[in-house]
Amino acid sequence: MWLHxxxxxxxxxxxxxxxxxxxxxxxxxxLWNLHADHHKKDHDSWFERNDAFFIIxxxxxxxxxLLWQNKILDIGLAIxxxxxxxxLAYFLVHDIFIHQRFKMFRNANNMYARAVRRAHxxxxxxxxxxxxxxxxxxIVPFKYFKK
Length: 147
Description:
Elements: H1 2-30, H2 32-39, H3 52-69, H4 76-98, H5 111-124
Helix pairs in contact: 1-2, 1-4, 3-4
């Protein structure tokens, strides 16, 4: 039981690194064609090509659930849940709180909320593939907590 809890939290926190890594080197790298419309909208759809990354991580999470369900990997449930919960947190912070794809959390104005908004604004300041900054999501560099 304790191992599963430890694996869940380790996976959740490791996903912040994975988000940073995949954002910097994959989304702003060889899969820029899927991510570009997130920086500069070039369509009229509510959906973005960038949303494909949610599907990719959902498939990975489901894969771990299946490994657990088929008794191939005992900690598969913990890993799958860690990925899923991180994805949910990412969706709530990035798509709902920051980009307001749903009109919720508009009045959140604490120190952390302001720092997350500032860091993401700095990331979106660069609309091209290169010269980006702040590729993570939940862990914000200290400088963005300052006024």
